[in-house]
């Protein structure tokens, strides 16, 4: 019975997000795209877990509060929150979450203490992996149960925040500014979408580095992980931060700050590794924060010229507004990105 119970774990791609201290994944195929939080119309709120509606280019979508469905204390939307537009049967809905990031592939076997049929079926459509990681493998089952069910995820998992992780907002003025930002975003989102021929596009992950935003073509991304221990390797180029182990495989880590001569501005996190591969070569890019996923029109990418920076010319395809698109093909064909860990 347990083998059938965990057969879902063979799926290759997940979109992961966080709510409070809990990380949660949904099948990547269920997600359409992600947008920044906008003002939610609460007039049509009609059920537990339903936060209201948004207007997406004339289409009214119901918004499900994953925070409420998990059992956390409710709070108002924040500009840093995200909405994931997903398919729920024949309709599209929005999932309100805190932070969104992508992980592709990986082993999601539950910990031994959660290898219990009762625990794994108490909330339909969901499987518990660890004390802070779950997977929603059937969105329809999970969302429908959330409207009527009594059991919440934090009834099962220990909440280190005591159920109160609401950010402190210091003044009425702060609330007014947040409301203004969210309303402006909602007005833009409600504008009709132009009916034009679809130009060629690429699917990308966007990330921040030294307060600049970059994009990487999704087809080269194997996975995105949190930064683990980095081991420096003497005698390597300055832009090689070191090596780390990813599922038993040793990969080199490239620091774009050095490679692209990006001026340093304050402290940064570098707490994400974007693992790139073309099937032959594999290495990781250090990033401060994953800011989202989406598509870019290839025709909108403007080639940028920086005569004084050869590396920028080689490794940046171009720019859309202030978003720099990496030339991953050039990175993956540069032998300097790979180091021989047998020499360490």
- Overall 3D shape: globular
CATH class of the largest domain: Mainly Beta
Protein structure class: alpha+beta
**CATH fold descriptor of the largest domain:** OB fold (Dihydrolipoamide Acetyltransferase, E2P)
Distance between the termini: 46 Å
Please give the number of β-strands: 20
The low-confidence parts are 1-11
Helix content: 10-25%
Number of helices: 9
- CATH architectural category of the largest domain: Beta Barrel
The radius of gyration is 22 Å
Number of domains: 2
CATH homologous superfamily title of the largest domain: CheA-289, Domain 4
Domain CheW-like: 11-148, 201-344
Organism: Methanospirillum hungatei JF-1 (strain ATCC 27890 / DSM 864 / NBRC 100397 / JF-1)
InterPro entries: CheW, CheW-like_dom_sf, CheW-lke_dom
Pfam families: CheW
Describe the SSE topology:
Blueprint: H1 2-5, E1 13-19, E2 22-27, E3 31-36, E4 50-56, E5 59-65, H2 66-70, E6 82-88, E7 91-97, E8 99-104, H3 117-121, E9 126-130, E10 133-136, H4 139-148, H5 153-156, H6 172-190, E11 201-209, E12 212-217, E13 221-226, E14 240-246, E15 249-254, H7 256-259, E16 272-277, E17 282-287, E18 289-297, H8 310-315, E19 316-320, E20 323-326, H9 328-332
Pfam families: CheW
Domain CheW-like: 11-148, 201-344
Protein name: CheW protein
